[in-house]
Structures
1.
Amino acid sequence: MIKLKNVSKTYSMGDVVVNALAGIDLHVKKGEFVSIMGPSGSGKSTMLHLIGVLDKQTKGSLIINNIDVAKLNDEERTTFRLKNLGFVFQFYSLLPELTALENTFIPNLLGGKNFDQCRKNAQVNLVKLGLGERLKNYPHQLSGGEQQRVSIARALVNKPEILLADEPTASLDSKSSLNVINIFKQLNEEIKQTIVLITHEEELGKKADRGIWLKDGVIDKEKRF
Ligand SMILES: Nc1ncnc2c1ncn2[C@@H]1O[C@H](COP(=O)(O)OP(=O)(O)OP(=O)(O)O)[C@@H](O)[C@H]1O
Ligand SMILES: [Mg+2]
């Protein structure tokens, strides 16, 4: 489903060159739940952004769903994302002028999906995440953890084939964190969703099928749970 072969990513800012990823080989199978761990700055988000077709690798190849995504043009990349991927970003990226419910379903309409169905799925997911009483709140009327849960609900609405989550539980207490991971686990088991989850918390990372630790842009170790 997701294949990275010798993938590197270099950021150049003036004279400073950062090797955020330095030769990653990784194969995530369809329906597999993988957690990515490792210290701050080790390249976790960079890797997720590449898999999420939000950025391009400097070297190596990345094949998702049998498609060499580096070869797609900008429009094809957008269509690919809408069709295949769901994201939960490290920073919640909600639209301030939309309510929790609108933030959850409106971005999902972009793929030409049915309005009522999206709205209904959005509400179901928000309730599941404990936000049934917050549907009409705007982001500034929500706590950080609540905003994070809205961004999770948004990623789940279309039941994307691949779910990418960058520290989705960073602002949550341990009970809500566990609830989120259990929802992921349930989706993974019920609809065979492929999940790549970044987390700092090993206790949560262990709920995945496999854990991968990055260090200085390379895979430091790997473990099946
Ligand atoms: N757009 C960018 N331009 C320049 N450097 C960047 C950019 N994005 C990331 N980096 C650098 O690349 C390295 C890896 O960053 P990345 O965000 O992937 O780390 P991370 O493992 O997700 O860390 P954290 O746990 O703190 O989120 C860091 O040294 C960072 O400063
Ligand atoms: Mg990060």
Note: The first strand starts at residue 2 and ends at 13.
2.
Amino acid sequence: MRTLQDRLKDREFWIANALDAGEIETPCLVVDTRTMDQLLSLWRDHLPQVGLFYSVKANNDRHILRHLQQSEIGFDAASESEVETLLALGVKPDRIILSNTIKTRGCLQAIVRNRIPLVTADNERDLRAIAQASVGEWSPSVLIRLKVSPTDVQIDLNEKFGCTVDEARRLIEVADSLGLKPAGVHFHVGSQCWNLKSYRDAMESAVQLLDEENRAHLKIINIGGGFPDALTASKCGGLSCFFEGLAAIAGEALSKGYSVIAEPGRVLVADACTAVCQVIGRATHDGHEWLYLDDGIYGLFSTAYFEKQPFEFVPVRESDASPCSFVVAGPTCDSLDVVGKATLPSDTQPTAYVMAHRAGAYSVSVKSHFNGFGNIRTYVAAPPPATLASNPGGNTVEFVPGDALS
Ligand SMILES: Cc1ncc(COP(=O)(O)O)c(C=O)c1O
């Protein structure tokens, strides 16, 4: 049985070989579809009855979307452009939901044109806009997004989105009166949430509201995303343990006859991708050694800035030189463009390659072209990295509770 750490070693080996062979260019993101499959299986094993709609915003790379499409899951889109990307890949509209409560005219038209079956709203103006855009008899089913109060979450989105339970009751009436099809409620605790209490509390509010409403057509609870990557999950016993707890929370709603769906983003992609960069400069400032990479916070590493995510840089080629502490910065002229600190061989010089794992979420989907950088390629490292071919047992990864990736 291979552990996640083994899987990372396989990926590092693949990257070193691919660089040697001139098969990949930096900066790039290397996607390991086998790790994605393992994460997906872990979800499915624990939460087989929770409908899965991958949240495209976490990573909209076509390799990833195509691979997930083959896995026959649904998708959560946030805009007209994301809907069009999915349709172009052959995803059927009935496998797409749209959970952004802020909809442009183009987004409303895409919902109606493509008959996107389920959308979310948290205010009356949005409900009216959906009703106005709907044509003839057809309108989407609507979930009302509740504001929730999560604990232990990296990014809380509940200031910007959601409504109170009382407002949700009113919005259900409004939706009904507009001829829309209110179908249930939605919450999203935020991103990188490692405390199941956040989901338990939110689920209790959702179930209580729907129980009190007691209407046959209010049957769906969308528990959003926010599930942690493996390292963050190690704070609460690991991903298996987290999913087990989530399954118990979902189970209570399922046992009352509600359908439970979710929009995981980060958890399915973060640990499946590795960023590979080349060192393009080195300098000493105020006694500190600085390394400049061909990518930084305006590219694959925006979470270092927005979420204070620590990236651990690893040299692609081993060296006997003593370890040295470096400040790692991106290539742009902005002084904010600092990814973090790293311990790397003291002989690391321009042209050396470094890599950082846990780079799959909110990396390529957030990057910009600031200062003319950001031309980032993506490569798929599977089918099997060379080490796996000669390694029986290479098909399975064991997720050990507390398993951390860096
Ligand atoms: C409504 C909604 N659903 C799902 C997600 C995906 O979240 P995550 O990648 O943390 O799972 C987000 C991310 O912000 C979101 O806003």
Note: Residues 55, 57-58, 76, 99, 157, 188, 191, 224-227, 263-267, 361 surround pyridoxal-5'-phosphate (CB under 6 Å).
